[in-house]
Every structure is written in C-alpha cells, then in structure tokens.
C-alpha cells in the first residue's frame, strides 16, 4: 500500500511550489522524490505532498477557503482582507485594527551595574559589590540577572567561587539553582553532574524547580537514567509536570530506550495530563528510522489523540509528521472533510447540557431574574422557530460612528428581504428616544422581526443561546461575543468541544457594511477543524509558525495524508 501526503493551503516555508494541472484556482502542488539508502522502510509511510487552497463550493470539496468569499453575483472570487472569526491570528488582527489607548507605563529604574562578560577574581567581585546600590542581596541579584541574560557559565562559576571563599565553602541553594539553570541552558553536562553531586550530598529533598532542572540537565549524559529516579522522587510529593515527563521521554528516546519512552507517555496520560506537543513530536522524529508496525500504530494513536482533544501541531511538528509519512508523487486524495454540523444525537446532548449548565445552572441570575427568564421562555415557545437570532445591542454597536438604531435596522431589513424569520434581542432602553436610538427606526425593526427587550441590567447571552437552540439546528445567531464564559460553564472537555463546534457552525459574523450599504456576512465553515481520519487518510490542521492563535481560534493550515492501495 502507498500513502500520499497533501498539505492544504500552502507551505512556503517548508517546500517549493510548482503549478499543478487539473487543480482549481489557488491550488499548487509539489512533487517529492525522496530516496532512502535503506529503501522502503515501511509501506505505511509512502506519501506525497500537495499544497492546496481548498474551496467551499461543493460538499465534496476537501476544505472550505477561510479567506475567500463568494460574491453575491457571478462566480468570481475576491480575497477578503478580514480573517475568519475563528481563524488563528484573527483576534490579534482585530485588536490591531481597533487599537485601544493605553497609558504609557513608566519604565522601572534599573541598577546601573553592568554584568561581567568574563570571569572575575575576588577583588573584582568585591569592587562590583561595593558599587551595588540595591536594597536586596547583591549575590542573589547578580545571579538572577545572569540567569535572565543567559550569561556565560564560566562567569557564573567565578561568582560561586567568590561566594564559597567568603562562606567557608558554602553556597546557598538559591545560587546553586540559578547556576544550575545556566548550566542546563548552555548544555554544560559535566557542570550539571557536579551540581547534582553537591545537591545529593547536601539536601535530602529538593523543591520542584531543582528536580526539574536536574532532570533536564541529566538526560543528555550517560547518567540519564538517574533522571528517572528524580522523577520518582517528585512522585512522592506531587504529580510530575508535563515538562518533567517530556524531558524523561526525550532522554529515553535519545538513548534508544523506546519501551521506557512509551511507558512514560502512557503514565502521563493516566494522570489526565495533556502532553507537550514537543513530546509527541519527539516520537515522530524517532520513528523516521523505525521499521516496526507496532511503533507505527502507536504514532497513529497519537494522531487520534490530537483529534479527540482538538490539539493542533505547530509547523515544525507538522513537518515531522510529514517527514515520517512522506515518499512518492503528489496526487489529490479527493476525500471529504467532516462536517462542522453536529449529528442529531450530539445536538440534543449539547442542547440539554447548555439548558442545564448555562441557562438554568449558570450565573445569569446575577444580571437577570428567574421571572424575566421565564417570561422569555414563554415568549420563545409561543413563536415559530427562528432562522436567525440577533444580539441587537451587540450588532448595533458594530459601527461606532453610526447611529445604533440605524445600524440595527439596516441589518434586520437586509435579512428580512430573504424571508428569514428573525428574533432581535435587546434592552428596554433601546426603545427610548435618544440621539443613538430613534423611535421610528426601532418601530420599523419591530415590524420586520420578532423582538424581546429585557431589563437594562439583564445579560443577553443566555437569551440568545436559549432561543437559538430551541429553534433547532438550522438556526443561526449574530453577535461579536465569543461566548467564552458560557463555554467555561460547561462541565467537561467533551461538552466544551461540542459547544465550540456548534458555535463555529452557527455564529454569523458581519465583516463589511455601513448604514445604507449592502452587508457582507462571513461564510460559516462547512468542515470541522480537528485531526480526522477516514481510515485510509488523515487530515491534520496545524499551527503556522509566527501566527499567534488564541484558544477560541482554529488553524488555517492543513496536512492531508492519503493511503493508496
């Protein structure tokens, strides 16, 4: 059997692009002909790579374009400068487009002492201490600065020698730990071992930071197995961190002890600890030279783990996955990515959880009353199902320079022309005549949509969620609110993931439009951005280098791995 590897969108930092006949606009392809001195290592790792900018025009398309919009008339595509609402980096770009004024902080006063760049003798350290004007301990201050600046180990060592000479050979724990940090940072393994011997002799137990540094420093030495003993010491008082496990796994793989590495990985998962992506990457890097189906199956299990926990590899990790899989010529897989829409069972499950944990059991009563919520529930039940629920106040404030009632009326009017049944949620103050809210415009809004105006202190989000979910899976909602607080109210990761999936498939975002002009709504993604498989293919979204992605955003780059029989 043969695997073909495709990268969705483009990979300018990793691979060179060639034109590819037969692909639609925006597609490109690279052919990889990689040889291996050992021949074919594993039939499950014969892949080719294809870079794609998939489109969302048919159900059979691989991936919908997150940055392309279809014009209202014609089939021409135009590139949108506005990133998708849930795309990685979108929040940062929005903040740059709408910068908030910030007070200029006064820079802290810094000590004027310059850190030495060469080892100093006793007299030179004495002089430097005499010049120190700080109120804290000079020794602790200078070693902290050296750690922050990653100073030379030799310079730090001369400091410790000076301190030891003045204190009958004793160096404090704080100084030792910071010196150890520098030794680990510069990978001075012999110095790490020296500090390790000192600490073993002087201290029966260490604090977690000391254990962690020793573990990281020892894994590169022939005494790496002692890092496993230190891990056991940590277990006596607490659960080791993901970094502790990562270092020990890296050490085991570095020294070819694969069984220990996998055992540590399983132990980490048994503690419900989410492993570092660096840890998972290490297994793929090691697997490049492994001719073992059992090892390959474990790597496929890691891909399943990424999917089940909605984790996204970084660009370097994605490259490691590609390298493990790749070989052969670039071909298209033609597979359909999983839909963003929930199944009927998932929808009913999520609806019940939101009603129980957010609507009934959340904190909405801090900003509304049970009586008002009951009045709203009765109102919704008396109406036919809605097609779109609008957060009126939120939408009205989308264009700060425009009159709020005018903005809301413009949105409602354009949607009403499409024969959509609309619900506008608002506050009672929106009905009072003012500069921002005109009564005649709000009266027109009420003619074209059902409206519910809550008390001015009430919070809109619970009403919006209730009405949208009650109306059925077809109903969409419009708000700029990302609903992070409500997601946090849900009791477990599974429900939170379903909520985020439902949100991505139902939340409409207005990306262009001014009062009187035609609105442009960003299309809703048709596919679910998670690691997914169809058995003979894997599709893996991953984080692009230098793109800052918030927790409520998803990557826009994909790898496609396809198996050919």
UniProtKB/TrEMBL annotation:
Q: Which residues form the PRORP domain?
A: 326-560
Instruction: Give the cofactors, semicolon-separated.
Output: Mg(2+); Mn(2+)
- InterPro entries in the record: MRPP3_PIN_dom, PRORP_C, TPR-like_helical_dom_sf
Location in the cell reads: Mitochondrion
GO CC terms, sorted: mitochondrial matrix; mitochondrial ribonuclease P complex
Pfam family, any one: PRORP
Name one process (GO BP) from the record. Answer: mitochondrial tRNA 5'-end processing
Molecular function GO labels = metal ion binding; ribonuclease P activity
Function noted in UniProt:
Catalytic ribonuclease component of mitochondrial ribonuclease P, a complex composed of TRMT10C/MRPP1, HSD17B10/MRPP2 and PRORP/MRPP3, which cleaves tRNA molecules in their 5'-ends. The presence of TRMT10C/MRPP1, HSD17B10/MRPP2 is required to catalyze tRNA molecules in their 5'-ends.
| Protein name per Swiss-Prot or TrEMBL | Mitochondrial ribonuclease P catalytic subunit
């Amino acid at each position: 059997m043969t695997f073909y590897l495709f990268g969705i969108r483009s990979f300018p930092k990793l691979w060179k692009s060639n034109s590819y006949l037969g692909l639609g606009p925006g597609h490109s392809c690279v052919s990889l002909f990689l040889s291996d001195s050992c021949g074919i290592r594993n039939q499950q790792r014969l892949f080719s790579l294809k870079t794609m900018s998939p489109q969302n025009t048919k159900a059979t398309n691989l991936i919908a374009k997150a940055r392309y919009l279809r014009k209202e008339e014609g089939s021409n595509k135009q590139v949108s400068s506005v990133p998708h609402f849930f795309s990685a980096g979108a929040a940062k770009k929005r903040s740059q487009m709408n910068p908030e004024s910030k007070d200029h902080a006064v820079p802290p006063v810094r000590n004027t002492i310059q850190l030495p760049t060469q080892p100093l003798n006793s007299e030179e350290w004495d002089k430097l201490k005499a010049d120190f004007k700080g109120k804290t301990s000079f020794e602790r201050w200078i070693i902290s600065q050296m750690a922050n600046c990653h100073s030379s180990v030799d310079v730090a060592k001369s400091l410790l020698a000076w301190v030891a000479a003045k204190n009958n050979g004793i160096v404090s724990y704080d100084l030792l730990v910071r010196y150890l940090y520098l030794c680990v940072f510069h990978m001075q393994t012999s110095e790490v071992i020296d500090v390790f011997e000192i600490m073993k002799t002087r201290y029966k137990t260490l604090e977690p930071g000391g254990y962690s540094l020793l573990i990281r420093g020892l894994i590169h030495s022939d005494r790496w197995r002692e890092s496993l003993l230190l891990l056991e010491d940590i277990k006596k008082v607490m659960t080791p961190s993901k970094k502790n496990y990562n270092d020990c796994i890296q050490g085991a793989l570095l020294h070819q002890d694969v069984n220990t590495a996998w055992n540590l990985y399983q132990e980490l998962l048994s503690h419900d600890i989410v492993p570092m992506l660096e840890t998972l990457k290490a297994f793929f890097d090691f697997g490049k030279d492994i001719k073992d189906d059992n090892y390959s199956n474990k790597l496929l299990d890691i891909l399943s783990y990424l999917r089940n926990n909605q984790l996204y590899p970084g660009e370097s990790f994605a490259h490691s996955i590609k390298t493990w899989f790749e070989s052969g010529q670039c071909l298209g897989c033609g597979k359909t990515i999983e839909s963003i829409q929930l199944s009927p069972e998932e929808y009913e499950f999520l609806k019940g959880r939101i009603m129980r944990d957010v609507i009934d059991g959340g904190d909405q009563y801090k900003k509304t009353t049970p009586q008002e919520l009951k009045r709203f529930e009765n109102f919704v039940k008396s109406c036919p199902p809605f097609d779109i629920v609008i957060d009126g106040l939120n939408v009205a404030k989308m264009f700060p320079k425009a009159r709020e009632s005018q903005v809301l009326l413009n949105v409602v009017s354009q949607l009403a022309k499409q024969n959509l049944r609309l619900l506008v949620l608002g506050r009672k103050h929106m009905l009072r005549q003012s500069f921002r809210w005109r009564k005649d415009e709000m009266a027109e809004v009420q003619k074209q949509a059902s409206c519910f105006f809550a008390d001015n202190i009430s919070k809109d989000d619970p009403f919006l969620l209730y009405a949208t979910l009650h109306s059925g899976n077809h109903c969409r909602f419009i708000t700029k609110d990302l609903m992070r607080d409500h997601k946090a109210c849900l009791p477990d990761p599974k429900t939170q993931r379903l909520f985020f999936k439902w949100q991505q498939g139902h939340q409409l975002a207005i990306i262009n439009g001014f009062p009187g002009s035609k609105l442009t709504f960003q299309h809703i993604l048709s596919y679910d951005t998670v690691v997914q498989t169809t058995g003979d293919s894997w599709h893996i979204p991953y984080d692009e280098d230098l793109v800052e992605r918030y927790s409520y955003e998803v990557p826009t780059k994909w790898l496609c791995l396809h198996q050919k029989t």
